[in-house]
Amino acid sequence: MRRLFTILASLAFLFGLPAVASAAAAEPLGSGSVLFDPAAPANRQCTAAFAVTDGKDNFLLAGPACTSGTLYSTRSGGGFAVVGPIVSKSIVSYNGWALVQVTNTTDWEVVPWVISNGDKVVITGSKETPVGGKVCIARPKVAPQCGSVDATNQTATFPWGTGTGLTRTGICVGTTDLGSAYLTDDQAQGIPLGGPSNFCTTPGTSYFVPINPILDKFGLKLVTG
Length: 225
Prior knowledge:
mainly beta; Thrombin, subunit H
């Protein structure tokens, strides 16, 4: 194959033909990746929280802003490529998240890390932080915000509807500042849903969907490092 490529490249040079280009390498896809549907109004976007697998296929758990269709993500070299379809979205008792199947394994490779303030945090598990424990919301390009787990099994109303089984934290995050994921050190905690208002007018309050009930209900496992 290498000899064939060399011959083709030599012929291209001699006859002024375009050289044969190799396929672009797969790029990392995981927590913090921005997903969007070009066919949706205003290119509606959501942020991936964690990469998960059912042992056969890989998926991304994302926030509630993406609700249907086939999602794409932007490549580092420019342009965008398909990721795959939403196969499950907000449902009763676990609403506020979307499950996206990664069908394009040519352009994307799922990874076990979260990008927080430009650094990689490798996820090793999902041990739940108890009430009173420290939790942080990772944001890809800026410093994480940290606070405490204040309560579990909560109900809260958001623009997309009412969420149940939520965890309330002492972190001030509005619905327009969803970041990527809630973590305690290298342990996955949940998918950000935001706070009670767009501008975080109630200090020290935000909610997330706990990840373990989703994993258990749908037979999924975190992609860990």
